[in-house]
Known about the structure:
Blueprint: E1 11-17, E2 23-32, E3 37-41, E4 47-48, E5 52-58, E6 61-70, E7 75-83, E8 86-94, H1 96-163
Antiparallel strand pairs: 1-2, 2-6, 3-4, 3-7, 5-6, 7-8
Amino acid sequence: MCVVTVGSHPLITVDGFDVSGGLHLQCESKGWNPETELVWLDSEGVTLTSENTNTERETDGFRVKHMITVYNRDSKYHCRVKLRHHMMETEIITSSKMFNSLRSSVILISVGSVLGVIAGLLIAVFIYRHREQQRKDQRLKSKDQKLNGEDQRLKSEDQRLKNV
Length: 164
């Protein structure tokens, strides 16, 4: 005879966003015996297919985790755990604010990254030009010193020739 153990109330966590803008939702419940069934339902009660399912046997019973990705902006999703005549359910309401904040964050991060790269390139070009100008100035100074030396030598030579 199998002893039935009712586990924890299902817990829904938001697990982030994917590249296409979908919201990852994960539902988890633990402590069930025997192994329980976990299902996701949309606002109309239609069963959704879990993308990632995980069932583990632990010392205090079975732990179940299922993940889905949702794209509807304003909707309710239910996570239901059933074992024979026992059932527990948790719901989450998604709003367009969740999705819009992600989109805004991604746009801001992208714009910030691009501006950072452009600023870095401009600084690098400025430093390169500044160093080139310093090299040119150094060469001109060196040539000027040579010319001044040559000028002094010619003046001395001119003075010597005038004295002769």
